[in-house]
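Hey, sorry to bother you again with one of my protein questions. I've been staring at a protein lately and its backbone has me curious. I owe you a coffee for this, so here goes:
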Amino acid sequence: MKPIYIFQKMTLLVGICLIMILTACEKEIKITGVASPIISLNDLRALFKGSAITLSESNMQGATSITGVVISDPANKNEPDGLVILQSFKRKILRGIALELGADSKNFQMGDSVIVNVSGKILDKKDGLTQILGLKASDITKVSTENAQKINFSATTFSDLFNNKEEFESTLVSVKSAIAPDGRFSGTVNLSDWSNELRLITRPEASFASLTVPSYADYTGILLNDNQENPYLMLRSKSDYAAQDLEPYRPKELYANFPEGWEKVVGTRKTSFTSAYEKYLSGEWYLENSRSLTSSGFLNISGSYGMMSQGAKESSVTMNFNLPFGASRLTFIYGAATATDNVFPIVLHAEYSQDSGKTWTQIGDDLVISELNNKYIFDQQLNLKGGIRFRIRKDNSEKRITIDDIAVYQN
């Protein structure tokens, strides 16, 4: 019987080992923590699918609240009636929402940081705006005051605001170099970017309602919608606009701060070819795969600095602003950038836009660089009226070019 006993023990031992091996091979399940009590405004807005929804922990990923900074300003009496406009920056995304609070909306000032319990409240589209309905003042906890408010959009053209209004709704946006007719702020003023119009709406009781609207200015305000979901801008105070000087009309003369030779940057100069905006004395430019720099080996430039394009990529140097009085003449210098940029031809194009950059028209024929040490000069007579901007665009030629001394003359 002893051999049978030993066999039974060995069988049991093998079974135990087998169980241990199988258990060790099972996928480990880790507990990573509990759900956050805060849902981002981006995720919250995504819950709305065209009809009202009651917010709950189950549809808010276990959350109960939202947070943000108040951007509406009851103190200056130019806020949407009965609403608190809240925006929040989370996961590098800035989004906004309207909180329906009725008379209690006056208790929350611009810059207040708040936590809002939205569990059991209604998310719906009302009067053209995505709103949270059914809130009480007791649902909101004020954390701090006088916080900075981020700007969600800044440009000289309104096209992106209209095309992406869901993204910018109930957030702060900035429109630059906007044209306005003579008049007061009170009521509706149509701002123009030379191609599109954006309504600026001011309540008669606003602290700045009686002030004169500047003919040319930068504006920062809350982007809202009317009942038809058409966007409009609402300033908070007179600090939200800054008048700009519109230079005198001098036909055939050079525009102020031209020619642009890239010598004096306003702010920080880019140090790589990454596409970005950069500001100079003439205005803000969009530099696509281009950068300004100085070098003893830099060919075909005027002065210390020139604008160099990146090789083997399409690149452009584009005005992000409109010149108000058309153009009677455009000139600039171009050529190969360095002694190593000797693979020809290199092709570029001079273009203009009269709709704030939505569409572009080429001026004359393609410009072809075929010699290394030739400083080419583009000089074209024009007869273009109204607001206008220019860009100089290189194709994906293998080698780099330089662009310098861009000069535009009024028409």
